[in-house]
Write a structure and sequence with these properties.
By secondary structure, the protein is of the alpha+beta class. The chain is built from 5 helices and 7 strands. Bound molecules: flavin mononucleotide (FMN).
């Protein structure tokens, strides 16, 4: 007898042609790169962390009630810091700050202290500050949604400012153009590795949440 109780994976993975068409849509826009920093607590000397993210966006149009959303992978050290403090800061970077991309976007804070050697300077909410960004926003988490691979944080913005209004923010597309060959290869390797981790996490999440 066939097992009629076995459910097919849902939604079904896309065909290669459809996946390529979807990816072509993503290539039509070029998101800015953000540096996201967070600490275990606001206390000076507490553990710090940070990563590079494109999944960061304005989430409210109300002038005196600004909000942001940020999607941070649940296997990142930065995720652990945000979970602990429920706060994070986001920074826009100039093209000249590629060193910050390599410092925060390649390794994990689970293995190395990415802020080693940098003074322990904090935002009013206790998030790590670093030299080099052109703008910053200080965020406190209001809500979070797990998507399996990420936590999508909705955060109120408590403060921030423009530090350099003469420079355009670094984007993901410009990073690809500016990256030397060895860094480009490393970015590609990490993107493929994280894609595999995220696919497993999304599959497990979908198995546990029937979204039909
Ligand atoms: C261009 C670029 C965009 C990225 N976007 C995101 C993102 O939106 N969300 C995320 O969780 N990680 C993103 N990453 C990956 C993290 O920055 C990277 O894995 C980092 O090393 C994680 O560090 P952590 O474990 O110390 O937090 C991006 C990396 C790069 C280079």
């Amino acid at each position: 007898m066939p097992d009629n109780t076995a459910k097919p994976e849902h939604p079904q993975p896309l065909s290669e042609a459809t996946a390529a068409a979807v990816n072509a849509v993503y290539q039509l826009y070029d998101p800015p790169l953000w540096l996201v920093t967070a600490a275990e607590s606001p206390a000076p000397g507490s553990r710090r962390g940070g990563c590079i993210a494109t999944f960061v966006a304005r989430a409210a149009i109300v002038r005196d009630m600004p909000r942001m959303v940020a999607g941070i992978a649940r296997h990142h050290h930065t995720w652990r810091m945000i979970e602990a403090s429920r706060c994070f800061a986001v920074y826009l970077l100039p093209e000249s700050a590629l060193d910050l991309v390599w410092r925060f976007g390649l390794d994990t804070g689970k293995d190395v202290d990415k802020l080693a050697g940098l003074p322990d300077v904090r935002t009013p909410l206790g998030n790590p500050r670093v030299d080099g960004p052109i703008a910053w926003l200080d965020c406190r988490v209001e809500n979070a949604m797990s998507t399996g691979d990420r936590s999508i944080y909705l955060a109120e913005v408590n403060g921030g400012g423009v530090l350099d209004d003469t420079t355009a923010p670094l984007t993901a597309g410009r990073l690809t153009e500016l990256a030397p060959a060895d860094k480009r290869a490393e970015l590609d390797r990490l993107y493929a590795r994280d894609g595999g981790i995220d696919a497993d996490a999304i599959r497990a999440w979908r198995a546990a949440h029937d979204t039909r």
